[in-house]
Amino acid sequence: MKNIDPIPHSRPTLGAEEAKAAAETILSGQIAQGAMVGKFEKRFADFLGLQQAVAVNSGTSALHLALLALGTRPGDEVIVPDYVCTALLNAVHYTGATPVIADVGAADGNLDCQAALRLITPKTRAVIVPHMFGNPCAGITLFKEREIPVIEDCAQSVGAELAGSKVGTLGDLSIFSFYATKVMTCGEGGMVASNCQELTNAVADLCDYDNRDDYLPRYNYKMTDFQAAMGLVQLTRLPDFIHRRREIAHRYNAGLKDLPLRLPGAQPDQQPIYFRYVVQLANPETLLNHLRNHKISAARPVFKPFQLLTGTNAVTDHGASPQGLNNHGISGHRVPQVAASGTAMRTFAREPNRSPQDVVPCDRLPNACSVSLQLWHESLSLPIYPLLQDAEVDRVIAAIRDYYQKISDT
Q1: Across 43-139, where does the E strand assignment appear?
Q2: Per-residue DSSP letters for 99-119?
């Protein structure tokens, strides 16, 4: 094993084009937000087929601004899936609202939209729907029928499609992340997109924080021009990135299909992009260690479900809330309320006849997030990125097959 190169779990796909674009922008002297950011916003909105996009400095900032554009404030509730990056939890807490945790589906780890519907109350301001691991989440229309605003979290799924529509075009707003190991990257960065100009104008207003006569708390969340220059190049390369990810996924499928693993799947109307290739097995930690011994890095696709991070009683006895947590199992800590101009924020309509008696809070459902917990215990993410070579994919497959061969020999 000493003479073989390690295979990392994730790796950005960058080259001479990105370096040239960033260098030219730096040498121009205009490195803060300027015309290049505007160009990137326009190209990205055109890619999605939406009216407007606003570039920001991270996906978390994008989530925060999207929530504020919807008028989210203390006293509101925002439904989020249990099995996802903690950025969602952070963004909701930034607004002072209460996150309400919902379970996910066993097939793909996406939000269980039917379960989430049962958590709607008159306090529900929005639902955040991630498209996990690059696989589109079906069921967004269920929330739109109830007039609940939807923020699509496309941090892992830019370019994926559901029934011929790109993710990011299905909700009221969508957010994207351009972190180093995401599908496309600016090093750091994010985007908020929508067909509702009132919402995108509110997001842009919240970023335009200086030299304003109408003082409100606003945010220095701007993207820089040299990041946007990289993003423009990455956007042109995105179709090739997605094509290569699908090639690798198909190679894994062919090489692992006869093993006792649950491989990622998709419904006929889902066109995933395989940001992650996630397999499920009884004891992922032993396979992870086996791969590590072969100089292959694998990882749990989600660090921890929210129920474990926050102590929600989906995993405690008899629905009793742990000390210091509110009745949704989330810490009652509040950040200061953000004042908002009545013209800058939009209050969406809500169902007039909905009452608290019609829903069951998630922490009162027995084993409410049991699927999420099971996925966390059983899931492992294998290396997948455009720079991964076929020989390296075959090395991963061979190492996994060796693992199961050793099990059968014992």
Answers
A1: 52-56, 77-81, 98-102, 124-130
A2: EEEE-B-TTTS-B-HHHHHTT
Question: What does DSSP say about strands 379-382 and 52-56: parallel, antiparallel, or unpaired?
Answer: unpaired
Angle at 112 between CA 73 and CA 305, to 5 degrees: 70
Contact 205, 85 (CB under 8 A): no
User: Could you tell me whether strands 165-166 and 161-162 are parallel, antiparallel, or unpaired per DSSP bridges?
Assistant: antiparallel
Report the C-alpha gap between 202 and 94 in whole angstroms. Answer: 17
Residue 150 exposed, middle or buried by CB count within 10 Å (0-12, 13-18, 19+) = buried
Domain 16-231+341-361 CATH class label:
alpha beta
How many Cα neighbours within 13 Å face the side chain of 279?
25
Q: Write the pLDDT tens digit of every residue in 1-14.
A: 668 999 999 999 99
Query: Is 295 in the active site?
Result: no
Q: State pTM to two decimals.
A: 0.87
- Residue 273 identity: I
Averaged pLDDT of the chain = 88
pLDDT of residue 320 exceeding 80, the answer is: no
String of b and e for 239-278 (b: at least 16 CB within 10 Å)?
A: eebbebbbebbebbeebbeeeebeebebeeebbbbbbbbb
At 376 the three-state DSSP class reads helix
Confidence of residue 198 (pLDDT cuts 50, 70, 90): very high
CA 220 to CA 56: how far, in whole Å?
Answer: 9
Domain locations in the chain as residue ranges: 16-231+341-361
Q: Which of 2, 42, 182, 257 is catalytic?
A: 182
What residues form DSSP beta bridges with 262?
Answer: 280
Average pLDDT over residues 322-327: 33
Which amino acid belongs to residue 190? Answer: G
